[in-house]
Every structure is written in structure tokens, then in C-alpha cells.
Amino acid sequence: MLNLMKSEQYRFIRTKNYYFYGLLCAVLMAAAAVTLNVFHHSDPGFTYGNERFFYRNVLAMMPVVFALLTIFTGILMGDHKYVLKNTVAYGFSRRSIYTAKLLVTLAGFLLFALVLVGISVLLGSKLLLRSYEYALTEYCQMLLGMLPIMIAGVTTYFCINAVMNKNAQISTVFLLIYFLPYMILGALKGRYVWAAWLHSHSPAYYLFNAYDVASYPAWEPWITGMVYTVFFYVLGLYLFRKEEF
Amino acid sequence: MMMHCILEIKALNKTYQEAYALRDINLQIESGDIAALIGKNGAGKTTLFKCITEQVFPSAGTISLYGRQDDAGLRKGRRSVGAMIEEPAFFPDFTARQNLEYFRQQRGLAGKDSIEQALKDVNLLHAANKKFKAFSLGMKQRLGLALALMTRPELLILDEPTNGLDPEGKAEIRQLLQTLNEEKKVTILISSHVLSELQSVATRYIFMDQGKIVEQLTAEELLQKTRRNVEIVVDDSGKASTVLEKHFPGIPYRILPGHRILLSGGMDKTDQLNRVLHAQGVSVFSIAATGGDLEEYYLGLLGGERHA
After folding, report:
1. How far apart are CA B231 and CA B284, in angstroms?
2. In which band, very low, low, confident or very high, does the pLDDT at B307 lie, cut at 50, 70 and 90?
3. What is the pLDDT of residues B198-216, one digit of tens each?
4. Rounded to whole angstroms, how far apart are CA atoms B182 and A60?
5. Chain A: which residues have CB within 8 Å of chain B?
């Protein structure tokens, strides 16, 4: 399996879109920070040119970041599943192939996220005012709470990819899995207790409330994320083991 | 060289919903064989190759590689198999060398010599740094073959390997396969629609139709079944033709360049021919039955269109 991971790593570090996507995210964050900085210096009444506001806005974008995960995962996985027939023919088990690809994609995602968080911290601390001492600590804590949800997202995308080929289809199903139940449960939560409970424990809930640290205990998204990760890993593996090329 | 069975297939079936793609396949491939799989489109050749390499799962039956049919044994066996089945599949934005490097790392092959050697073997070194998506069909085939050869396999499974190649390329690949078989003792299981090409390399023929193996023959058996002519090489073809007309008036013949005479018939009279020609003062250098046209035999057995 290590060889499989090595070759996957060889492939993804040569995938140009990975870097383009990272650059795009960094540019968008820089644009937001620079805009806040410019307004802060040009308008004395502008109260948002501070670190905390910037970080909270990054966190408020979590549902969008999560949706964009489909692009990211698509880039890392590639839409060249047919190439795997060479790997299968060489005697690698489907379980090893699936797990190795997933682990490398998760590692790629973590690296990507780490770099982007680093850039956002750099932008916030260099360009914006420090109005609240614990802004950075709070930001890091909230981001850490989002990590298991993001990992669950990557694992889910992998699972759907095991049975579908087109990125557009995979992305649609992915978004439906995460956001449709959230919306339905939101409509039902006033009538049923169980619906309210499920609603406030669904991944989308944590994404939409990522900036609001008081709305849920820190360990909750970890449990939800792990449940989703394990479920979709097992399901994806089951489906991929039946895949024919 | 002692022959041993490296691939054995017993009662193999593959169904898609209700339809049989393979039905009761029983097959043994001995080491050193160049076994040609022959059949029309949809006969099941590619499905059989895919079952052997686990790209698809058999519905019933067993496959045994190097004597092992358990999952772990089969997977280990597949490490000694090089396969090119259907269209070669590579990353389009990678160059030929990068694609092979990806698989070299995946297969844990030490050193990069294997890549260079494989590219050299298939005459693709000049395009090593060209992206796969810019390749012609023939170049893609060559790269597919390079990947199959990279691990120095003991068994090569090739599905239409010369598809898209020019005549020169076809001859090169044919020569390469013969060299691999003769010098490196690589066993080859190959399918092609160009039967004349198969006939020049194959030692065994496996005819398939509608998912079933309808006949298996060695090259000698094919020759036995199809020979119709006798070719005689003599010192004086003019004198020999006079003798033939006098003593064997019922056998039509043609005089060919190189003091050769081709008789249409007389298969059972080679001894007599030899004796009479000698007695009449004609030196006979060789006398042999010829024929064995694979395409004709295939058309007779399975029907279908003649290929160029």
C-alpha cells in the first residue's frame, strides 16, 4: 500500500489544478483582507478592519468552502478512474487501492488547508488591526472543529466516486447528501423533537454555525464527522470492491 | 525446456444480467506458449482477459495462476503478468515517461532503467517527454505495451496489441514478441483480428465464439488440418514438370521462382513423387506439405468476413 500511496503522491503533486485552486483561494482571502485594510485606513468610522471580523468571515464561508470541496477532491482524485484498470491488473486489491487513494487525498487536503489557514493568519495579523486578544486562538479552535466535517466530506466524495464517473453528478449527489436533509430537518424541527436533534447534529449545522462557538460543544462535530467518515468509508469500500473496469 | 502450466481456467462463466459473455471456459496455457485467441467481435476474448486480470469478476469457475487459485496467490501471480487490454489507459496530462514513472513507483520497481528499457523496447524513446493526450493511437498502443513489459513479466496478455500501428510498427511488435518468447521465455496470450499476423507468431490457437471456446489447436495441428499443397524444390524445374505431366497427370501444379514447384494435391503421394523424380534424374532438395492458412480455417470454422 505504501507504493500505491507513493505513486498517488507523485501524481497529485504534479496536478497543476491543485495549485491553481490554492492560489485562487489565497487570492480571494487576500482581496478580502486588503479591502478591509483599505476601508479601515480611508474611513475612520469603519469598524470592521480587524482580525476578528476577518476570521469570522472566513468561518462564515465554511458552507461554501465545503461545497468547493467537491472541486478540490475532484482535482485530487482526477476523473481518470479508468487508469486504475492497470493497477487492478497488476494484482493490487481494490481495498488497498481505495484506501491508499483516500489517505493520499486526505493528506493532500490537510496540507492544502494548513497552507491556506497559514495564509489567512498571515493576512489577518499583518494587514488588520488586533482588536481582540484571543481572536487567533478562537479562529484556530473553530477551524479545528470543522476539520472532522471536512474529512467526512472528502470521504463521502470518494464514496460517491466509487459508483459514479462524472464530476458534475458526483458533486450534485454530494451536496444533496449534506444539504438536503439539513433543509428538510430544518422545516420539521418545530414539529418533532427528533428532527430538531438531528438538525442540530448534522454536518451542515456545524458548517453554518462555524463562527458561533457557543452554539455547540467542541466535541460534537468530531463525533458527527467520525460517524459520517466511517459510514461513507465502509460504504465506498463496499461499492468499490464490486467495481469492474 | 520443461513445460509447465502457468494459467489454468476451469468452467469459467461470466454473465451480464441474463446474457453470457463467457460460458464454460476451460483453458490451460503452458509456459513458453504463444497462444492466439481468435474470434469475432463480442466472442468474449476481452472479457476472458479481463477475468484473468480481475478487471471483471467471473460469475462462476476458477482461475489458477502459477498453480494458485486463492486470492492472495492470484494477486501474487498477477505481479508476473503484463497486460494490455482494450485501449491503453494513462493520465492524459502526463508525458509517457511520467506515466511510466507513476506505475514504476506503484509497482515498487527499483531504478528508472526499467522505464528507459521499456520505452526503448517499443521504440518510443523519441516521444518520452510528449504528453499522452498528444499521442496517436499507435503511440498509445506502444506505451501500453511498454507498461506491460516494464515489470519483465513471465506472462504477457495482449488484446489487439497492433491496433492502430502502421505496417512497420506491426512488424516491430511481432519481432519483439518473438524475441521475448524465444530469448526471455515469456509466455504470451494474444488476440488480434489480423490473423496472418497471429499465424506468424502463434504456437497455439484458441477459437472462441459467443463466449465459448469452440476449438483449440497447436500450430502443427492447424497445419495438419489445413495443408493442401505439396511444395517441391528441385535442381531443374523444367525437367521436373515434364516428369510430373507424364507420371502424375491428375495433379495440377505451378512453377514458382527458385526452382520450386507447387502441387495442388498429392498430399498422400510425397514418397512416390520423390521416388519417381529421382528415378527420372531430377534432384529433389526438399518435398513438404504446405498450407495451413489460419484465416481460411477460421472462416470455415466460425464464418465471418475476411480481413485484409
Report:
1. 11
2. very low
3. 888 888 999 998 899 988 9
4. 68
5. 3-4, 6-7, 10-11, 14-16, 78, 80, 82-83, 85-93, 242, 244-245
Cβ-Cβ contacts under 8 Å, B93 against chain A: 15-16
Q: ipTM of the assembly?
A: 0.83
Which residues in B130-278 belong to E strands, given as ranges? 155-159, 187-191, 204-209, 212-218, 229-234, 253-256, 260-264
Mean pLDDT of B255-281: 85
| Region of residue B148 (left: phi > 0; alpha: psi -120 to 50; beta: else) | alpha
Angle between helices A51-60 and A16-42 (to 10 degrees): 140
Give the number of other Cβ atoms within 10 Å of residue B292's Cβ: 19
pLDDT digits (tens, 9 = 90+) for B10-24: 999 999 988 899 999
C-alpha cell at A52: 476578528
CA of A242, closest CA in chain B: separation in Å?
A: 8
Q: Which residues of A touch B74 (CB under 8 A)?
A: 91
| A194 C-beta neighbours (distance < 10 Å), count | 10
Mean pLDDT of B123-146: 90
Q: In angstroms, rounded to a whole number, what is the distance separating the alpha carbons of residues A106 and A81?
A: 18
CA-to-CA distance for B148 and B146, rounded, in angstroms? Answer: 5
Test B101 with A10 for CB contact under 8 angstroms: yes
Under 8 Å between Cβ of B194 and B305: no
Cβ atoms of residues A41 and A35 within 8 Å: no
The x, y and z cell numbers of residue B276, run together, are 519417381
Mark out chain B residues that contact chain A at CB-CB < 8 A.
50, 53-57, 71, 74-79, 81, 83, 85, 89-94, 98, 101-103, 105-108, 147, 151
Amino acid at A86: N
Among chain B residues, the shortest Cα distance to A97 is held by B106
- The DSSP secondary structure of chain A, one letter per residue, reads -HHHHHHHHHHHTT-HHHHHHHHHHHHHHHHHHHHHHHHHHH-TT----BHHHHHHHHHHTHHHHHHHHHHHHHHHH-S-GGGHHHHHHTT--HHHHHHHHHHHHHHHHHHHHHHHHHHHHHHHHHHSB--STTHHHHHHHHHHHHHHHHHHHHHHHHHHHTT---HHHHHHHHHHHHHHHHHHHHHHTTT-HHHHHHHTTSHHHHHHTTT-GGGS-TTHHHHHHHHHHHHHHHHHHHHHTT---
Query: A-chain residues within 8 Å CB-CB of B133?
Result: none
Four-residue CA torsion sign, A204, A111, A76, A106: negative
Contacts of B55 in chain A (CB under 8 A): 85, 88-89, 244-245
Q: How far apart are CA B92 and CA B135, in angstroms?
A: 9
Q: Calculate the average pLDDT of chain A.
A: 88
